[in-house]
Amino acid sequence: MQRKQEGETREAVEVSATVEVSTIVSCKPRSKSNDASRPAPISWTEPEDSSATPIPSKTEGPLFGCCSVLRSTGNVEQLNRRGCFPEQLVVSLEHRSLWQEFFCRGTEMIVNRAGRRMFPCFTLSVSGLKPKAKYTMICEIYLADSHRFKFINTQWMPVGSAEAQPEKSTYVHPDSPNTGAFWMRQGISFKKLKITNNKEKPNENVLLYSMHKYYARLVITEVKKASSNKEAQPPRVIYQEDFPETTFIAVTAYQNEEVYMLSQ
Fold first, then answer.
1. How confident is the model over 95-109, as pLDDT tens digits?
2. How far apart are CA 132 and CA 234, in angstroms?
3. Cα 96 to Cα 71: distance, rounded to the nearest angstrom
4. CB-CB neighbours of 137 under 10 Å
5. For residue 112, what is the DSSP state?
């Protein structure tokens, strides 16, 4: 009889402990420490002139920041969209994870006199365009910093002022202008874009300066049809967006071994 009571007591204690533990687990409040430890989103330094180009601002950490900063934002496009654009228009950077892998290490792009294609390639997908309207796709490469850089002790360091050069270099997609249906079906690939350091004869290539930092911007203009009674209207910019993941240093040879290995 005594053993039976002891067994019942033991079972009651085990059941009570189980209920207590499950209660603690199910009622445990959500921790708020995760929010505090999240990296701050990418910030932008707004110039005094509202028409000027926004430049990524990075006051802490390595030159190119960290890929966790990009990943924490979820959707980078929402951070740096400029102006008032159609809400239904959505542009996404293709191969984003690859761009981020390069970004974490400090992306380098090879330039030479003959012209070299960018790797990774600046490729995007788009939706929300009017299928029958015609659009021109433009890639603008902007100078991202006012310094010249040098690779010292496995990292890029500013070593002086940037050389005098245009604020941006423009490349028009060779399939432009084309219909919205075409762009939404084919995507926007600037695989034919070549960057060069040939100042005398850049030809159709984008002229960049070695050891300077740049980033890519996409500009979409809508081409209006000329009516019989009115003159043709100039193309209207309906969308423009900077992609901070594409920030890179122009070089004549890879300096960072990790970037070189990733590009192979």
1. 999 999 999 999 999
2. 18
3. 10
4. 23
5. B
